[in-house]
Amino acid sequence: MSNTETPLERHIRLALEHGSSVDTEWLERHIGFVIGHDPNRVVSDIYETSSSSSSSSSTSSSSSTSQSSSSSSSSFDESSSSSSSTSESSSSSTSESSSSSSTSLSSESSSSSTSLSSESSSSTSLSSESSTSSEGYSTSSSSSSTEGTAAPTNLISHYKLNDDAATTTIVDAEGTQNGTLTNAGNTEDVTTTGKINKAIAFDGVNDYINIPDNSNHSFGNGSTDSPFSIFSWVYLTTLSSGHWFSKYTSSGLEIEYILTITGTGGYMLTIYDVDSGTNWRRKTSTDNPISTGSWQHLGVTYDGRGGNNCMDGVTFWHNGTSYTAGTKTGGGTYNSMNNLTSPLRIGAVRYLSSWGYIANSKVDDFRIYGKELSQADVDYLYNSGSGTED
Ligand SMILES: [Ca+2]
Ligand SMILES: [Ca+2]
Ligand SMILES: [Ca+2]
Questions:
Q1: What's the gap in Å between 40 CA and the centre of ligand 2?
Q2: With bands split at pLDDT 50, 70 and 90, how would you rate the model's confidence at 127?
Q3: Which of 47, 150, 335, 349 is the most exposed, fewest CB within 10 Å of its CB?
Q4: How far, in Å, is the centroid of ligand 2 from the Cα of 163?
């Protein structure tokens, strides 16, 4: 198959992969093709046109939540193995019936992997990467004896989320990159009891924190990547595909990174080289430790190695335990991220004019570091489940 992806294919793939609905205005502008105003309808119609024989749903026993994770993690597996298109189509029909944006996204992401079969060219070079890695899964638990004793260095931004006031300001206690609470009133309106002092509650509908573009939040310069770590406490009330944070699109396709919490309680990190959305790498955890109903310490670290095998340098963290296993996928050639103009968003991703949000949840103590945290560093932050905010 051809290695070139048409603008239409790319647009649909990105929208579907990242839980956004397809931008009908874009479709009208670029291809004069729009079917009504229902983004799901546009997607399904295009999908049905471009896919041949995935109508049966004999495997529909799989739940929609598991679909969202497995489908989004396997876009390259899909193109290299046609047999899974059946389960894909069943998942899309299942989740189309749901109305929330984050859920409808999971359905779209499944159809995208199928409609992307024309992309399988790039999967050729990546096929070795798309298999589930057998990397080790660290079972080290944070007991008090292993806690780090010093605060991690290279802290870039620190959002304690104790911003209980009649303003929308989200204070960066470390740097100067203050954010703005968006679609949620003033911070006093959504302040809740946190893991450490207070936290911000997100409604799962459209609440998020917008932090204007700042070079300190970019971890690639177009030539090389640099290490980063992002951690926070999260309390999820429902488990559905949602977006923990992103630096992704202010206008056009300005994409740096996005972290999605999958519908099965796993992590999915995607990073992009150049802003076209063509060259990218992704790791989707095959462990799914995230659950609902309690505060959990979530994190991702990246050693900044760059290059096509960059995902080998990514580790996910949950309550002090590291998870390196995952399904690695990608497209094109990856060298490094770029310093673009997208805002950093906590709790949301914007794809062109479409949005996806974190599920109904509370978030506390959001930290960005300019290095790859060690086990001892993470232990210090997790502190046997007590956490520290200073
Ligand atoms: Ca709201
Ligand atoms: Ca707090
Ligand atoms: Ca920038």
A1: 38
A2: very low
A3: 150
A4: 8
Burial 266-305 (b: 16+ CB within 10 A, else e): bbbbbbbbbbbbbbbbbbbbbbbbbeeeebbbbbbbbbbb
**How far apart are alpha carbons 103 and 89 in whole angstroms?**
15
Tell me the ligand closest to 201's alpha carbon. 1
Give dist(CA 284, CA 286) in Å, integer: 6
CA of 152 to the centre of ligand 2 (A): 18
Task: Say how many Å lie between the CA of residue 253 and the centre of ligand 3.
Answer: 13
Instruction: Identify the DSSP state of 386.
Output: T
In angstroms, rounded to a whole number, what is the distance separating the alpha carbons of residues 240 and 40?
18
Residue type at 294 in one-letter notation: S
Report whether pLDDT(291) > 50.
yes
Per the listing, tokens 């990174």 go with 257
Instruction: List residues, by chain if needed, whose CB lies under 5 Å from ion ligand 1.
Output: 183-184, 203, 206-207
Q: DSSP 3-state assignment of 190?
A: helix
